[in-house]
Design brief:
Blueprint: E1 5-6, H1 12-24, H2 27-33, E2 43-47, H3 74-86, E3 93-97, H4 107-120, E4 126-131, H5 136-143, E5 149-153, H6 187-191, E6 193-196, E7 199-201, H7 204-213, H8 230-236, H9 256-267
Parallel strand pairs: 1-5, 2-3, 2-6, 3-4, 4-5
Antiparallel strand pairs: 6-7
Helix pairs in contact: 3-4
The structure holds iron/sulfur cluster (SF4) (2 copies).
Amino acid sequence: MKTPLRHRNITLKRLVYDTYQFLRAQSFISCHFGRQYHPSLTCAEIDITYKCNLKCINCNRSCAQSPSDIEMPVADIAAFIRESIERKIEWKRIRILGGEPTLHSGIFDIIDLLIEYQSRYNPSVRLVLGTNFFGSRVHQVLKKMPDAIILKSTLKSSRVNLFKPFNVAPVDTVYNRFSDYTCGCRIIEECGIGLTPSGYYMCAIAGGIDRIFGYDMGRKQLPDESDALSDQMSAFCRLCGHFGVQWPTRKTKKSKTWRLAYGQYQGK
Ligand code: SF4
Ligand code: SF4
């Protein structure tokens, strides 16, 4: 089995950049200079399932806070590929994520579709699978992964990791009272458009937030380049601990809005 390339979520460079993006997203600055980030059709992230065998504290897909067995139908991946070809979108990178994507019951059907797309239509696209690399079931699947798939992992070994406090909603903090949430964050540009079981979003994290809040704001088709997705940014960035600057933590942190939302989700 290939050892995955190491992916680091938290770096000093990113924390410095987060501080800048927080300042840049203040309303009195954004009203002069416009939004800092714009949705991009260069890279895509696909959350194929919310199943996960780790359930980390502060998971930014809520896999621990509100576990779910949701799987994206393989037909949705086929539709994504079909639309990409029809619209002549040449992805530079497609990341397959979750949850833990190796736990999707049709993982190899999805991999086959993406490799076929790469070999027939887009030889330069990088196909990356992000895995937690934890446990024998995950390793069994990874052993069979074709060479065309690049493996990336934060190489987790427990539920406790250094993460940004995803469940501290900026809207619950005093220091964000002048923030313009339509500015988004660097994840929009670094990671690209998100395809999730609820549709397309400016980032895959937003689809995971929508699963809990139930706004059903995912686009059902690949957004046009003219679609700024401002409605999604306005709705989801105010709830997301990746917005602006928040110090990473290993402890469970949840602000009031998230505590209420998880309570309502579990009561459904
Ligand atoms: S491994 Fe990833 S998806 Fe799974 S619970 Fe941890 S952070 Fe969430
Ligand atoms: S939802 Fe979170 S990760 Fe996505 S753009 Fe907004 S702040 Fe960034």
